[in-house]
Amino acid sequence: MAPATNTDGLHRLQDSQLMQLMWLASPALPIGGFAYSEGLEVAVDSALIATETGAKKWLLDQLQVSLARSDLAAVAQGVAAWRLTDSDTLAEKISVLNRWVLHTRESSELRAQTEQMGRSLLEWLRNHTTATAPHIDLLASLQPTYPLAFALAASSTGAPVRDCLLTYAFGWAENMVQAAIKSVPLGQSAGQRILSALVADIPAAVDHALSLADADRQAFSPMLAILSAQHEVQYSRLFRS
């Protein structure tokens, strides 16, 4: 489905496309994203984050250094791959991308997160009306990761790739802000200020991800990997990562 066009020449999402993307970004989507802090909780426990300012800087850095270079780029290439008509080429590209995501998870918790959320989103797609059965079966055969499951769900909306990435990034931002509110802890107003800062930076992060070729994707955040490993043995925890 092609996006509609305004009188000024800019594309406009169809109502159905917009609502499907809103659905995918919703914290109510039953995939368990709320259960993970992606290392933020152990950063709080280690006194690396103690204030609203610290939490905002941490999440902005994670958006720019980690998400924009890895997951967003994988989602962008995944959406394009799911829309291919050649089934053999599609299967090869999805398999390579999915393996890359798995190999870039440097701790058992981070790997468990992408696998659990990937399986949950795949089960959601089985009961939805957008993704085709062959695509679902292909992903199910690959130990599905969340970025590739999201790419399948988003590709099925027919929305432009950039809008799909904005949706992924906003959903991530909402979950991470809620993790910061609970773990620092912060008030709701502080959370909204952090979310506002993330929203302001998300378009640039998305554009950077879209500019990356296969060979340019990277996942290099050694301190995050160390903190994630420490979280596995942290005495008191609210989150699964």
Task: Describe what you observe in this structure.
This protein is mainly alpha-helical and 241 residues long. The protein has a single domain, classed as Urease accessory protein UreF, CATH 1.10.4190.10. It is 65% helix and 2% strand. The chain has eleven helices and two strands; from the N terminus they run ββααααααααααα. The chain has a two-stranded antiparallel ribbon with strand order 1-2. A hairpin with a 5-residue loop joins β1 and β2. It is globular.
Short summary:
The protein has 241 residues and is mainly α. The chain has helices spanning 15-25, 40-45, 52-67, 71-82, 87-103, 108-126, 133-140, 146-155, 161-183, 188-211, 222-231; strands spanning 4-5, 11-12. The termini are far apart.
Layout of helices and strands:
Elements: E1 4-5, E2 11-12, H1 15-25, H2 40-45, H3 52-67, H4 71-82, H5 87-103, H6 108-126, H7 133-140, H8 146-155, H9 161-183, H10 188-211, H11 222-231
Antiparallel strand pairs: 1-2
Provide the CATH topology: Urease accessory protein UreF
Any low-confidence stretches, pLDDT <50, length ≥5? 5-9
Order of helices and strands: EEHHHHHHHHHHH
Number of helices: 11
CATH-assigned homologous superfamily:
Urease accessory protein UreF
Number of domains: 1
Shape: globular
Integer-rounded radius of gyration: 18 Å
In percent, how helical is the residue content? 55-70%
CATH class: Mainly Alpha
Question: What percentage of amino acids are in beta strands?
Answer: under 5%
Give the N-to-C terminal Cα separation.
Answer: 38 Å
Please name the CATH architecture: Orthogonal Bundle
Biggest sheet statistics: 2 strands, antiparallel
Give the spatial strand order of the biggest sheet.
1-2
Mean pLDDT: 92
Number of strands: 2
